[in-house]
Design a protein that fits this description.
This protein is an alpha/beta fold and 309 residues long. It is built from ten helices and ten strands. It has a six-stranded mixed β-sheet, sandwiched between helices. It has a four-stranded antiparallel β-sheet with strand order 2-1-4-5, covered by helices on one side. Helix 5 crosses helix 7. It binds adenosine-5'-triphosphate. This is ABC transporter ATP-binding protein/permease.
Length: 309
């Protein structure tokens, strides 16, 4: 009787674990907006990334719509040189995140080309494209598992030493150590709830472990407190070093150091250049910058008033 009970109990646990993992994967895919209809070409090759300091990304005359009747991107054309950072700014709904979804090939485009180191993303395997790209998303999905598992997810089979090293680099190690169960602490919906900044740091640790040649950073829309934001920005600079980075920016303070800024409006790139170039242009970007600066000033004055009281 006992003999029978143990395996059944074990199977029950296993079943729950598998079901849980599938549910988590489903959730991850749906959050990333993945379209599972995109398939590998019959003769798809493995993506070859040649550059030591990151791959070259090219969008050539890209037109794209999610649904037939509504075009989202119009003739989008840009190159990101290996090892450099390009930031995309623009109003909500202008198509910024769509660029990252297309680079990841969650969807196929209607016309134009998207290539990584000269290879069209439609001619290479999806698995090899996704292996080359690390994403730090707006909202990081945490699995209902230990914090160690959640970091190790970036590189299955990673050693504890590697996990600790990236957690330190992402400034989350001390926080983890302060938890009663340390790296074994359960997180996710059924465990410890982490703040937006902590979750993003777990995502950064995960990405550091994956060590991809391309980095996509989708900045959180919800404001982090300014200390957390500064920390994330400093880390971003660190991980962007020797990689090609695409930053979907919601705050202009993030983009100042980017080698290239693309300003999007209703699916079109309407301005491009460095922060300096774009201020000199006195166009949309310059106006956005001025607005953010005056908003910041208002907030500091409010803080000063509070401090005076
Ligand atoms: P935000 O700053 O708010 O994140 P964004 O500039 O990143 O916005 P996108 O997410 O790229 O904007 O969306 C561009 C447009 O595409 C929006 O009008 C949006 O409604 C539409 N869109 C996004 N995802 C889908 C989808 N899966 N199906 C249909 N339309 C979509």
């Amino acid at each position: 009787m006992i003999q029978l009970y143990i395996p059944l109990n074990f199977l029950g646990v296993l079943y729950r674990e598998i079901k849980q993992s599938l549910a988590d994967m489903e959730r991850l895919f749906s959050l990333l907006g993945q379209n599972r209809e995109v398939a590998d070409a019959e003769h798809a090759q493995v993506l070859q990334v040649h550059h030591r300091n990151g791959a070259e990304i090219r969008f050539q005359h890209v037109n794209f719509s999610y649904e037939e009747k509504r075009q989202i991107l119009f003739d989008v054309d840009f190159t990101i040189a290996p090892g450099t950072t390009t930031a995309v700014v623009g109003h909500s709904g202008s198509g910024k995140s769509t660029l990252s979804r297309l680079l990841f090939r969650f969807y196929d485009i209607q016309s134009g080309h998207i290539s990584i180191d000269g290879q069209d993303v439609r001619d290479v395997t999806q698995a090899s494209v996704r292996a080359a790209i690390g994403i730090v998303p707006q909202d990081t999905v945490l699995f209902n598992d230990s914090i160690e598992y959640n970091i190790a997810y970036g590189k299955p089979g990673a050693s504890k030493e590697e996990i600790i090293a990236v957690a330190k680099a992402a400034y989350i190690h001390d926080f983890i150590e302060s938890l009663p169960d340390g790296y074994d602490s359960m997180v996710g919906e059924r465990g410890l709830k982490l703040s937006g900044g902590e979750k993003q740091r777990v995502a950064i640790a995960r990405t550091l472990l994956k060590n991809p040649s391309i980095l996509i950073f989708d900045e959180a829309t919800s404001a982090l407190d300014s200390q957390a934001e500064q920390l994330i920005q400093a880390q971003l600079k660190d991980i962007a070093r020797s990689r090609t980075s695409l930053v979907i920016a919601h705050r202009l303070s993030t983009v100042v150091d980017a080698q290239q800024i693309l300003v999007m409006d209703k699916g079109r790139i309407i301005e491009r250049g460095t922060h300096h170039d774009l201020l000199a242009l006195q166009g949309t970007y310059a106006r956005m910058w001025e607005r953010q600066q005056s908003k910041k000033k208002d907030m500091t004055e409010e803080d000063d008033d509070e401090a005076d009281e």
